[in-house]
Design a protein that fits this description.
9-stranded mixed beta sheet, binds iron/sulfur cluster, alpha/beta
């Protein structure tokens, strides 16, 4: 039976991107080898040492809550074979959002929504350009804007496109705002959870 290394799980609000503001149950899986300098979940990087849980156990956490939307995040969740977990959540009637850098191939059973957040220093698997619902690029330096544009042009799935200023770079908002005004196909993503103090 499939089981997954769970770092933490909690019912909160999605803070970023297209579904920002929506109540969501978060499932954070262990393991990430991408190494973003701005990562705010570095504690999730180890692949080993977490307690593994089956989809049925994970459902038993969600069922007592009013959650209708589940976010599978990490770490980099696609390090794990997510198909059985996604299928079990969907069979429960839950809307399943996957947050991924795209470094590894998409799950064999697709979720309802893929938030694709490619990283410049780790080229994504090309399959995400076909299946992403949402493209979210973190802007860490002015040259990232051009790279974000390249990524958007590669996407054939016509995703909703977000630029997210890197939270630890004080100038990032000043680069992103005028760029969005000049290129209104992009939207602004802020990490709302940081502002309102929720996980
Ligand atoms: S891909 Fe996500 S979890 Fe991994 S280092 Fe980057 S921000 Fe952190």
């Amino acid at each position: 039976m499939s089981s997954y290394p769970i770092v933490e799980h909690f019912y909160s609000l999605q803070g970023e991107g297209y579904w920002a503001g929506r109540a969501a149950y978060f499932i954070r899986l262990g393991g990430c080898d991408i190494g973003c300098s701005w990562c705010d979940t570095q504690y999730s990087w180890p692949l080993e040492g977490w307690k593994n849980h089956t989809p049925e156990t994970i459902l038993s956490w969600i069922r007592p809550t009013p959650a209708r939307h589940v976010v599978i995040t990490g770490g980099e969740p696609t390090l794990h074979p997510l198909g059985p977990l996604i299928r079990a959540l969907q069979e429960e009637g839950l809307f399943v959002q996957l947050e991924t850098s795209g470094a590894y191939p998409p799950p064999e059973h697709l979720p309802d929504w893929i938030t694709f957040s490619p990283k410049r220093f780790r080229p994504p698997h090309p399959a995400y350009y076909e299946v992403a619902h949402e493209l979210k690029v973190v802007i860490h330096a002015p040259s990232d804007l051009q790279w974000a544009e390249t990524q958007r042009n590669l996407c054939k799935s016509n995703p909703v496109a977000f630029l997210q200023p890197e939270a630890y770079e004080p100038n990032a908002l000043n680069w992103v705002l005028p760029y969005i005004q000049e290129n209104p196909i992009w939207r602004l993503s802020l990490q709302l959870h940081r502002y309102i103090g929720i996980p």
